[in-house]
Design brief:
5 strands, five-stranded mixed sheet, single chain, alpha+beta, Trna Endonuclease, Chain: A, domain 1, globular, about 35% helix
Length: about 130
C-alpha cells in the first residue's frame, strides 16, 4: 500500500471517529461549538459546551488490529501538553469562554475492515 493511500485511510478513519464523537456528544445534550479549531499552537478536535462548562475533546480513532495499541494509549504527556496549550490559546482568543472548562477524551474503535466497533467517552480525562 502506498504512503498516500495509507495517509488517506487514516484521515478518513479520523474523520469518521470525529463524526461519531460529535454525534455521541449531541445525543448526550452537548452543544458543539467548534470542530477542528486551529491556531499557531495546534488543533482542537472538538470544542463543546455542556452545562455551562467548555469541554475540549480530543478524539482518537483506531482499527482494532492489535498492532498499535489502544486509542487511549496514544494520548501521551506530550499530546496532553499540546492540547492544554491550544485550549489556553482558544480561551484567550475567545474571552466569552470565561467559565469553567475541562478536557475529555473520546476513543472510537473500528474493526479491521473499518466498521464501527465501540466508543468510549472519558470525562475530565486530564
Amino acid at each position: 500500500m502506498s504512503d498516500r493511500k495509507r495517509t488517506d485511510g487514516r484521515v478518513k478513519l479520523g474523520r469518521q471517529g470525529e463524526d461519531a464523537a460529535a454525534e455521541h456528544l449531541l445525543a448526550q445534550g452537548y452543544r458543539i461549538v467548534e470542530r477542528n479549531w486551529r491556531c499557531p499552537t495546534g488543533e482542537l478536535d472538538l470544542i463543546a459546551e455542556h452545562g455551562g462548562v467548555t469541554v475540549f475533546v480530543e478524539v482518537r480513532s483506531r482499527r482494532d488490529t492489535g498492532t498499535f495499541g489502544s486509542p487511549e494509549e496514544s494520548i501521551d504527556a506530550r499530546k496532553r501538553k499540546k492540547v492544554r496549550e491550544t485550549a489556553h490559546y482558544y480561551l484567550y482568543r475567545n474571552r466569552s469562554a470565561n467559565g469553567p472548562s475541562r478536557f475529555d477524551v473520546i476513543t472510537v474503535t473500528f474493526t479491521p475492515s473499518g466498521a464501527f466497533l465501540k466508543l468510549n467517552h472519558l470525562i475530565n480525562a486530564f
